[in-house]
Amino acid sequence: MRTVLPILALAAFAALAGCGHEAEVPVAQGYGPNPVLPAPAHPLIPTVNPAEAVGWPAGAMPRPAEGLSVGLFADGLDHPRWIYVLPNGDVLVAQSNAQPKSGGGIKAKVMKEVQDYAGAGVPSPDRITLLRDTDGDGRADMRSIFLQGLRSPFGMVLVGNDFYVANTDALVRYGYQTGDTEIAGPGETVLALPAGPINHHWTKNVIASPDGDRLYVTVGSNSNAAENGMEAETGRAAIWEVDIATGSHHIFASGLRNPNGMGWAPGSGVLWAVVNERDELGSDLVPDYLTSVKDGGFYGWPYSYFGQHVDERVKPQKPELVERAIVPDYALGAHTASLGLTFPPANAALPGRFAEGAFIGQHGSWNREPRSGYKVIFVPFADGRPAGAPMDVLTGFLNDDGQAQGRPVGVAFDSQGALLVADDVGNRIWRVTGAASR
Q1: Per-residue pLDDT tens for 122-151?
Q2: Which residues, other chains included, contact 236 with Cβ-Cβ below 8 Å and sequence gap of 6+?
Q3: Tens digits of per-residue pLDDT, 346-381?
Q4: Which residue intervals of 105-205 are DSSP H helices?
Q5: Among 316, 259, 257, 323, which residue's Cα sits nearest to residue 286?
Q6: In the chain, where are the structural domains located?
Q7: Which residues lie across from 31 on neighbouring strands?
Q8: Rounded CA gap, 70 and 68, in Å?
Q9: Which one of 111, 125, 288, 316 is most buried, counting C-beta atoms within 10 A?
Q10: Are 272 and 264 a contacting pair, CB within 8 Å?
Q11: Mind listing the pLDDT tens digit for each residue in 160-174?
Q12: Any bridge partners for residue 72, and if so which?
């Protein structure tokens, strides 16, 4: 059986690849405050269409938008997922993947083959690497292992001399002094986070409030659409608020299927997040989204999506929750796997059209035909809110054969105002500036 099951899984994957529902709505119509939301599709065979991960050929790199330039900040990394820039300019990179899961079944075996094919099946490095550009030429020339022995680390934030890491199963605090290139001391667990043997959405992000008094932690759902029962979703599909002084925490916002990137819109004090929506309703549904996050807000999952659009698969329904589900501010296209989020600082080394808005890393679809995402985009803002069509920042992560040379994840600005992009298939960090700033 140990031999037969992988063979069956591969055969099932081969049969599924390229099958399922083909998009009927142009992907551009799945963006903006009022996306086109057609009737759900329920194909007999779910769409399975991942891009094969092949990496970058020698000398190749993503294509920057007009007026931008891209260079290589660091390479030779091991599944870099998230970026955090320390006040002294050091760049921290969480190198991470999901922990091995227990259990199985044919569906799980097929999903494992899909992940391997798309470049997500590698063992988790479970460490954070420090990168330093000592001569200011825009490329890291020093690196060290900052922290290791972690559990699928993702989000990172420094508050004073306390460095917080969001592992998949716990928020952990370490002591830090400016200029440290490694942390050797033991961490202190601030609070446990929902995990377990299934742990469907494993990435946990963390940011601090502008005043440094609170932390906000993302916890994704433990299923696609509550098929494991709501008892498996306790504390999940939510953003938690943590009081740093006391360690107490509560659910800040809920109904967010898989929130990842978070950020404070400059000048507004409003928390924003990007959220991955549900699958298996066809290639046109449901768009991922960027939204402001309200204290006590409910955003629909699993009972509805984009406001009051009921997901009939979820039983029993809760109409009282659906009635108050908040409509997200801005759709980001169906199945784009939007993960990274950052707002430009005052010293951003980019053209003026990128001065106000949100940069978003779209990891790319695995279950849409044709594929979507696989790029970095910019959503322009006006008066603190999204305003206008998205603009491409970096493209070319898919080659002409539809293979993934790279997949963008986390985005952050370095101390010189350049945009850094983590590429977990290319195992690189890209650096984007204005063409004149290079």
Answers
A1: 789 999 999 999 999 999 999 999 999 999
A2: 194, 201, 219, 220, 221, 222
A3: 999 999 999 999 999 999 999 999 999 999 999 999
A4: 106-118
A5: 257
A6: 4-434
A7: 332
A8: 7
A9: 288
A10: yes
A11: 999 999 999 999 999
A12: 430
